[in-house]
Amino acid sequence: MNRKEGVKCVSPIEHIDDNTVLTKLLTFGPSIYLDKRDALQNLIIQHGFWEKAVTDVFLSLVKPGMTVLDIGANCGYYSLLAAMYVGPHGKVHAFEPSPLHHDNLMKSIAKNGFNQIELHKVALTNIDGETTLYISRLGGASIYNPGLPGTIEAKVKTVVFTEYFPKQKVDIIKIDIDGSEPLIMDGLFQLIDSNDNIQIIMEYCPFIWRGSGYQPLPILQRFAERGFNFHIIRHDGTLVPATIEQLETYSEPAHLDLKIGRSM
C-alpha cells in the first residue's frame, strides 16, 4: 500500500463458527480471526479497520526491520499490521493479558506465518503477581472496574515492565491499556533512555489516571525533560501540536490519542 493513501476497507468474511469470523485487515493486509460478540471487533468486521486516523499515523512510522511493542494488543489489530510492515527481519512484541483474545490471536499469527510476533500473555504493571482484569464486551479491558453491564472478570498475571522487558532496541511503542498507563512509566522511560529515536502512540486518559490517584503532570514532564513533543491525532488524521499545559488541564472523560516523539 502507498502509505499516503491511508487505510481502506474491506475484504470477504469467512464464518468459522457461531462466534468467529476470518477476514483481512484493510484491503491489503493480514488475515485476522475476530469474535462477533465483541463490539470493537464487530466494527473491524464491518469496516476492515479500527481507528482510521491512528492506524494511518502508526503505519507511517513502522519500517522494515524495526522492533515494535504493542502494549494492550487486544485482538491483535496493530500487532498484525506491524508484523507485515516490519517484515521477517523485524520483531513485534504483543502484550495482552485477556484470555478472551489469546486463542484467536495465536490463530491469526499462525495463519499469516508471522514468526516475528511474540505474544506475551501478561499485564505490564509495577508489581509482579496477579490481578483481576475486567473485560468488557464493548471491546476494552482494564484492571480498574468500569462498572459496565456484562463485564467479565479474569485473574491474570502481572509483571514489572522494567524487569520483564529489560533494555533493548525498540523503535515504536503503541500503548492502549485503558488507564493503566501510569503503572508502566518507569519501564517505558527506561526504554526511552536507551533508544534515542523511539516513537510512541499512546491513549491518554487523564480522567481515569486522576481517578486512580495518578496526576498527569509529572508524567508529561518526564517526556518533556527528554526532549519529546506531543501531537494529538485528530479523527481526520491531522496531527495537532499540544503543550504540557493543554494536556495537563484536559479533563474530558474521553481519551486523546497522542503521538509522542523527539524532533527529528
Q: Span between N and C termini?
A: 25 Å
Number of folding domains?
Answer: 1
What proportion of the residues form beta strands (DSSP E)?
Answer: 25-35%
> What letter string, H or E per element, gives the SSE order?
EEEHHEHEHEEEEEHEHEHHEEHE
Radius of gyration using CA atoms only:
18 Å
**What's the pLDDT, averaged over the residues?**
91
Output the structural class: alpha/beta
The gross shape turns out to be globular
Named CATH architecture:
3-Layer(aba) Sandwich
CATH topology: Rossmann fold
Question: Strand order across the biggest sheet?
Answer: 6-5-4-11-12-15-13-14
The proportion of residues forming helix, as a percent range, comes to 25-40%
Tell me the layout of helices and strands:
Layout: E1 14-15, E2 20-24, E3 31-35, H1 39-47, H2 52-61, E4 67-71, H3 77-86, E5 91-95, H4 99-112, E6 117-120, E7 123-125, E8 129-135, E9 141-142, E10 152-160, H5 161-164, E11 172-175, H6 185-193, E12 199-204, H7 206-211, H8 216-225, E13 228-233, E14 239-242, H9 244-248, E15 256-262
Parallel strand pairs: 4-5, 4-11, 5-6, 7-10, 11-12
Antiparallel strand pairs: 1-2, 2-3, 8-9, 8-10, 12-15, 13-14, 13-15
Can I get a quick summary?
The protein is α/β, with parallel strands linked by helices and about 260 residues long. The protein has helices at about 40-45, 50-60, 75-85, 100-110, 160-165, 185-195, 205-210, 215-225, 245-250, and strands spanning about 15, 20-25, 30-35, 65-70, 90-95, 115-120, 125, 130-135, 140, 150-160, 170-175, 200-205, 230-235, 240, 255-260.
